[in-house]
Amino acid sequence: MTTRRTAAWIAGVLAIVYIAFLGAIFVVMRQPPQRFGRIMRHIPTPILIVVPVERMWNVARGGNLNIGDPAPDFALPRSDKSGDVRLSALRGKPVVLVFGSYT
């Protein structure tokens, strides 16, 4: 093999591995949050530098709600750990949702 053919072959293999890695990350992003966290904690952060995380996240977790649509029902643990609260249980009451990360 010539040097150019070898370099092209290596570049092709690296491209296939990269695309497979992106596909795997995309599949993981579509998992429920607890499973997503359990999987992603094993991925070293420097590896994610080569992943277009924001764009992939927006596609993987985008959903199909439009402005004015009712929020989907969900349950979250209460801050005092006394149980869960469901959004549907608050229907008709003013609700403020604040999204953030506490990690």
Can you characterise this structure?
The chain has helices spanning 3-29, 33-40, 53-60; strands at 75-77, 84-86. The longest helix is centred in the first third of the chain and has 27 residues, at 3-29. The protein has 103 residues and is mainly α. The chain has one domain (3-64, 74-90). The radius of gyration is 21 Å and the shape is elongated. 42% of the residues lie in helices and 6% in strands. The chain is built from three helices and two strands.
Summarize the structure.
The chain is mainly alpha-helical and 103 residues long. The protein has helices at 3-29, 33-40, 53-60, and strands spanning 75-77, 84-86.
Write the layout of secondary structure elements.
Blueprint: H1 3-29, H2 33-40, H3 53-60, E1 75-77, E2 84-86
The average pLDDT is 89
The class by helix and strand makeup works out as: mainly alpha
Q: Low-confidence runs (pLDDT<50, min 5 residues)?
A: none
Rg, alpha carbons? 21 Å
Query: Could you describe the largest sheet, including whether it forms a barrel?
Result: 2 strands, antiparallel
Oligomer: single chain
Q: Which sequence of SSEs, written as H and E, runs from N to C?
A: HHHEE
Count of beta strands: 2
User: Number of folding domains?
Assistant: 1
Instruction: Choose one word for the global shape.
Output: elongated
Helix content range: 40-55%
Note the total helix count: 3
